[in-house]
């Protein structure tokens, strides 16, 4: 069963005076209001700034220093908009659908390993948990598009759902090599094993970043990234909201804060996807070749958590930057190209990677490339 | 009794009732999604952590989407109201009652045949991780049924591709 809410457990241990579910609610509040929402807000600003840089423009620069508070202005604008529901639309589903998207992407934040000492809940099915809760996004897009009573919306929603359902398979299969290597679905364990230090002896379970464990995992990382791009409906896979064909796709009829929730859910989903790439393949909170807990002197746990959190965030935001960079680099795919790429391209490659990793594990007794080269383990 | 488990059970049963009796088939399938989520939480409290995750991935992410697709792409399916088919509900009703009674009896007998458990043993059972055990069972003592099912699924896949090929 779940090792329920470690963060809440430690809060209860430090402060007491509230039952565990109270602390669990508070930690969920902290995760959503101090991590998911600010990221979603700032990401819209940063995306526009990056877009502006790539197109040789200035971008938002009026609200606050260098336009930093633009997202707050956007939020106020959205909140003050008319609460509009199309006349022939389905009121109940129209209200419900954005919630699916937000719940799906924000719940995944609970198991993201921000640091060794800062995981909302290090559940033992962590990887499956992320895959499971993010599937809630697809019904959200599909129902929202149906409830809008709009052809373009419906087309966008159908595209989104079929795309997400298809690309889920290569994504899950590209995670499988990592599970083979670490023998665990617990994200904390998977990240912990990716440590490596040049000083002193490394435990036999430490094998540097999973991306460099063997050639197959290196390709798996790119498969996960590409599949994640498609699952989050980002360019070059943004067919569900292709402006030139479908006005704005599944969210055409949504205005005000409901549109805001869709946008927020999408950005949170991008963050979750990038954090997955970071945690599973890029070593998570580890600084390469340096273990800050084995320096010879002990750092306070708070400082270790602080440093690890920043390392994790830097890696994740670099992946997010690549996502935004691709937006202004690649053209959009056609529908048939999209499906062909999934079923004829990514899927066989993912199978090949799983088989290759299994062979590697058998041939080298589970040692990574690093362990073979350096003779540790 | 655990409050979260109680909430999940209420969610499951209430949504199942809506699924059965809502006149609009789209709403019925949306509430089917909530039923699946409630069942996943119940799995979690029974100690079947991996099964809970698989339940959400397969039933919420796969089956519900498939049902929604079928409803949205079939004109006449969406227009059928419960009142239109009321006189055709006798045979399905009888069949459903028989199958339900049979399932209830089988489950009841299975529960009775289990050796009595102490609360501590149940607590220990529900907190041990099951993923590795499931994997070892599938590739160990249940290898033959597992392989047979994979061949069956492969056959289904080939059949689906054959049906969907353009001509």
Helix content of chain A: 55-70%
Gyration radius from CA atoms of chain B, angstroms:
20 Å
| Quaternary organization | heterodimer
CATH class group of the largest domain in chain B: Mainly Alpha
Number of domains of chain B: 3
Q: Find the CATH topology of the largest domain in chain B.
A: Four Helix Bundle (Hemerythrin (Met), subunit A)
H/E topology pattern of chain A = HHHHEEHHHHHHHHHH
Largest sheet of chain A: 2 strands, antiparallel
Average pLDDT level of chain B: 84
Point out poorly predicted stretches of chain B: none
Number of helices of chain B: 8
Number of strands of chain B: 0
Q: Outline the low-pLDDT stretches of chain A.
A: 1-5
Counting helices, strands and paired strands, the structural category of chain B is mainly alpha
Percent of sequence in beta strands of chain B: under 5%
Strand content of chain A: under 5%
Record field, number of beta strands of chain A: 2
The helix content of chain B is over 70%
Query: How many H/I helical runs of chain A?
Result: 14
Structure, explained:
Chain A has helices at 6-15, 20-54, 70-79, 91-107, 126-134, 137-147, 151-182, 187-192, 215-231, 243-246, 256-281, 301-327, 335-363, 369-374; strands at residues 113-115, 118-119. In chain A, β1 (113-115) and β2 form a beta hairpin. Chain A is mainly α. Chain A has one domain (16-374). Chain A has a two-stranded antiparallel ribbon. Chain A is built from 14 helices and 2 strands, in the order ααααββαααααααααα. The longest helix of chain A has 35 residues, at 20-54. Chain B has 167 residues and is mostly helical. Chain B folds into 3 domains: 1-85, NADH-ubiquinone/plastoquinone oxidoreductase chain 6, subunit NuoJ (Four Helix Bundle (Hemerythrin (Met), subunit A), Up-down Bundle); 87-117, no CATH class; 130-167. Chain B is built from 8 helices and no strands. Chain B is globular and about 55 Å long. The model of chain B has no long low-confidence stretch (mean pLDDT 84).
């Amino acid at each position: 069963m779940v090792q329920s809410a470690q963060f809440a457990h430690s809060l209860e241990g430090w402060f007491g005076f509230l039952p565990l579910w109270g602390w669990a609610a508070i930690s969920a509040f902290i995760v959503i209001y101090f991590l998911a929402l600010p990221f979603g807000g700032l990401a819209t600003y940063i995306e526009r700034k990056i877009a502006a840089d790539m197109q040789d423009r200035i971008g938002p620069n009026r609200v606050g220093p260098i336009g930093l508070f633009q997202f707050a202005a956007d939020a106020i604008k959205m909140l003050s908009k008319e609460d509009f529901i199309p006349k022939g639309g389905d009121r109940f589903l129209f209200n419900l659908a954005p919630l699916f998207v937000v719940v799906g992407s924000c719940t995944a934040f609970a198991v993201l390993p921000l640091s060794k000492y800062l995981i909302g809940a290090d559940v033992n099915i962590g990887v499956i948990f992320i895959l499971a809760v993010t599937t809630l996004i697809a019904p959200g897009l599909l129902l929202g598009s149906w409830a809008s009573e709009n052809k373009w919306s419906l087309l966008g929603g159908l595209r989104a759902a079929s795309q997400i359902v298809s690309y889920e398979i290569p994504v899950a299969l590209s995670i499988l090599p990592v599970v083979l290597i670490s023998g665990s679905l617990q994200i904390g364990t998977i990240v912990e094993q990716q440590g490596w230090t040049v000083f002193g002896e490394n435990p036999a379970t430490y094998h540097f970043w999973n991306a460099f464990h063997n050639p197959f995992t290196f390709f798996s990382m790119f498969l996960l990234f590409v599949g994640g791009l498609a699952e989050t409906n980002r360019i070059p896979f943004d067919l569900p909201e292709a402006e030139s064909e479908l006005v704005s796709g599944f969210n055409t009829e949504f205005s005000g804060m409901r549109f805001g929730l869709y946008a927020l859910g999408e950005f949170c989903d991008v963050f979750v996807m990038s954090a997955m790439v970071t945690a599973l393949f890029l070593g998570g909170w580890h600084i390469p070749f340096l273990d800050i807990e084995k320096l010879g002197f002990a750092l306070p746990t708070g400082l270790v958590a602080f440093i690890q959190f920043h390392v994790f965030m830097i890696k994740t935001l670099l992946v997010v930057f690549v996502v935004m960079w691709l937006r202004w680099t690649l053209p959009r795919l056609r529908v048939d190209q999209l499906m062909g790429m999934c079923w004829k391209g990514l899927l066989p490659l993912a199978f090949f990677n799983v088989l290759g990793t299994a062979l590697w594990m058998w041939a080298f007794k589970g040692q990574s490339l690093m362990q073979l080269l350096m003779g540790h383990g | 009794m655990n409050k979260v488990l109680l909430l999940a059970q209420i969610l499951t049963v209430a949504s199942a009732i809506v699924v059965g009796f809502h006149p609009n088939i789209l709403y019925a399938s949306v509430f089917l999604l909530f039923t699946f989520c409630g069942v996943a939480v119940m799995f979690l409290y029974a100690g079947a952590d991996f099964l809970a995750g698989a339940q959400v991935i397969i039933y919420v992410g796969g089956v519900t989407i498939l049902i929604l697709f079928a409803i949205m792409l079939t004109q006449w399916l969406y227009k059928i109201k419960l009142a239109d088919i009321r006189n055709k509900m006798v045979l399905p009703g009888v069949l459903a009652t028989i199958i339900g009674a049979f399932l209830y009896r089988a489950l009841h007998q299975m529960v009775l045949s289990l050796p009595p458990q102490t609360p501590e043993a149940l607590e220990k059972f529900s907190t041990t991780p099951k993923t590795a055990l499931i994997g070892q069972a599938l590739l160990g003592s249940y290898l033959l049924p597992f392989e047979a099912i994979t061949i069956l699924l492969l056959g289904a896949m080939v059949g689906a591709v054959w049906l969907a090929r353009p001509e």
